[in-house]
Amino acid sequence: MADGAHRQGLRVLVTGAGTGIGQAIAERLADAGCNVVGTVRNAERAARRTQAAAPVGRSLRYVALELTDAGQIADVAARILADGGVDALIHNAGFGVFGAIEDVDGAVTERQFAVNVFGPLALTRALLPSLRARRGRIVWIGSLAGRMTLPFQGHYSATKAAIASLSDALRMELAPHGVRVTCVEPSDFATGFTDARCMARSQDSPYAAAFDRCLREVERQERGAPSPERVASVVQALLETPAPPARRPVGGNARLICLLHRLMPARLAERMVRSHYRV
Questions:
Q1: 141, 166 Cβ separation under 8 angstroms
Q2: Is the pLDDT of residue 268 over 60?
Q3: Which residues are catalytic?
Q4: I want to staple 33 with a disulfide (CB 3.0 to 4.6 A). Which of 8, 87, 215, 227 is the partner?
């Protein structure tokens, strides 16, 4: 895939394409003429989504992929490679755990990292030969939470910080092979993420009152946020940019938040976060 080339006809894999940001990205790229495969978690939903996309005339189909299942990851990668490979891999799939560090048990923590980090990493490894051969692109959908951790979202923020680090390493390792890598860092957008969040809270938790106050504010911000179409437009632009950036914050005040986080003393930043979320 030559830099700056017209992106129509690109073969793109978008994970977590059933709702929210992933759905917006898959549909936008398909409308732009890309051949898109989107992943969802079960086969029945994949079939329904593929059937719904057909009358619209998009080159968009869906496959089932559970990112905690190594066998499914290997199978999807093998089918993609057998079908000609991929020019762009968009990592969007993931979910969030909301809970105090003390209240989130080991099984939930393991699933958080399996879905958000380990599964995508395994899929990347499987598809890298094709991406190198086609001088492709990798886009990770991270989060501003990977830079600035919020209370009760430590596990989610840790996965997003891990994604950003992996993205940076891949960017350096793959640069000599012509593969461009970017981590997109959205702020709040109106998606199904809010309702799908995994809650870890017991009634007798010493953190219960602060948990509830923080959750109310987080949900208020998310439900009033803009459409994920803005993130989709940024991803499309990244596929069309000869030299995409290492990180791409997107959303209301996202760039300002990143700047302040770099320049502001850590104690002051923490004080502001705790005051805003009343913890």
A1: no
A2: yes
A3: 156
A4: 8
Contact 65, 40 (CB under 8 A): yes
| Tokens 């992929």 -> residue | 65
Q: Are 196 and 157 in contact (CB under 8 A)?
A: no
- Residues 179 and 79: their CA atoms lie apart, in Å, by 21
* Burial readout 143-156 (b: 16 or more C-beta within 10 A, e: otherwise): bbbbbbbbbbbbbb
73 CB-side CA count, 13 A: 17
Enter the pTM of the model: 0.91
Return d(Cα 132, Cα 174) in angstroms, integer.
8
Q: Reply yes or no on domain 11-277 having CATH 3.40.50.720.
A: yes
**Percent of all residues in the chain with a pLDDT value above 90, rounded to a whole number:** 70
Q: What are the counts of helices (DSSP H) followed by strands (DSSP E) for the chain?
A: 11, 9
- Cβ partners under 8 Å of residue 208, min gap 6: 201, 202
pLDDT over threshold 50, residue 148: yes
Beta strand segments in the chain, E: 11-14, 35-40, 60-64, 88-91, 97-99, 137-141, 180-186, 198-200, 247-250
Alpha-carbon distances, residue 66 vs 75, 119, 123, 261 (angstroms) = 11, 8, 11, 34
Sign of the C-alpha dihedral computed for residues 235, 240, 246 and 252 taken in this order: negative
Identify the residue whose tokens are 């632009």: 237
What is the rounded distance in angstroms from the CA atom of residue 161 to the CA atom of residue 259?
Answer: 17
Q: Encoding tokens for residue 192?
A: 């199904």
Tokens 């991270």 -> residue: 142
∠ at Cα 95 (92, 99), nearest 5°? 150
Structure tokens at 122: 């395994």
